[in-house]
Structure to design on (288 residues):
């Protein structure tokens, strides 16, 4: 069963230190491209989190976003920015020199000024298992989402494969009629010229024309490619690239069919085939 490359998963976990919220999104991509947006304290386990993603997903652009909301009774660690404090005091002293009988500089006032105290988020190691659990849960949601979308793509591709076979069969059934029409048109042209022509030579020319316009090989290859698409859809491994290659092969046969067409109905069938194959190709671009 095929999987889509588009999906979303979200998990929230409450821990003794606060709430973890993790979101993972995926869109189509040629390869597996994983991007993380993590609080600085979780960078130590980024490689472990990356391995969790790579175990479940094989292709797509994956964006993982993790946020941590600390409980109110869990204060942040902080330290004094000495350089910023020195600058503020110097500015206060400059102002004080311009004022008569200035009040002394109050340290309590200085410490409340922006930039004096820098708060630092300390992530305890005890949150790491929760982060792994949150990611595993979100990835499972995303994988289920991708699988459901893959089922829809599978059904659409099966439907289009049936349409390709129907068109190929109709063209194949009309081949004798097309060749008969070519013979009749050629005979009418010869009759209009009012000349005698050797029947053996006529048959030879008709055979050459029939050989040039023969599309039976293209139709056989179309059916073979469609069967390969159907076989590929039933495999468990990621098959997006293989399906993309098969779409190219189907399109090549449709182009050849159109170039060899000897009547309007065959030309229209070739156009319809190309439309169907393009619809399939657009869906295949989103297959893992």
């Amino acid at each position: 069963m095929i999987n889509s490359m588009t999906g979303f998963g979200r998990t929230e976990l409450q821990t003794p230190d606060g709430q973890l919220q993790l979101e993972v999104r995926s869109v189509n991509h040629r390869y597996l491209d994983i991007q993380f947006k993590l609080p600085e304290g979780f960078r130590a386990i980024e490689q472990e989190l990356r391995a969790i993603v790579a175990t479940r997903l094989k292709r797509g652009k994956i964006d993982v976003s993790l946020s941590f909301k600390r409980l109110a009774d869990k204060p942040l660690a902080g330290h004094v920015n000495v350089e910023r404090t020195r600058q503020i005091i110097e500015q206060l002293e400059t102002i004080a020199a311009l004022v008569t009988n200035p009040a002394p500089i109050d340290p309590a006032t200085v410490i409340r000024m922006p930039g004096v105290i820098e708060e630092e988020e300390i992530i305890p190691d005890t949150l790491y298992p929760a982060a792994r659990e949150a990611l595993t849960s979100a990835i499972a949601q995303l994988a289920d989402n991708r699988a459901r979308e893959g089922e829809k793509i599978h059904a659409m591709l099966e439907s289009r494969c049936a349409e390709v076979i129907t068109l190929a069969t109709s063209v194949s059934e009309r081949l004798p009629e097309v060749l008969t029409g070519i013979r009749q048109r050629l005979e009418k042209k010869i009759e209009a010229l009012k000349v005698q022509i050797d029947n053996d030579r006529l048959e030879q020319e008709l055979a050459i024309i029939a050989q040039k316009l023969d599309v039976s090989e293209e139709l056989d290859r179309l059916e073979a490619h469609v069967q390969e698409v159907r076989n590929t859809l039933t495999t468990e491994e990621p098959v997006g690239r293989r399906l993309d290659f098969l779409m190219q092969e189907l399109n090549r046969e449709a182009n050849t069919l159109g170039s060899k067409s000897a009547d309007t109905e065959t030309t229209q069938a070739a156009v319809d085939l190309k439309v169907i194959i393009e619809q399939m190709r657009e869906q295949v671009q989103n297959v893992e």
Summary: Residues 128-193 form the longest helix (66 residues). Residues 44 and 128 are 9 Å apart (CA to CA).
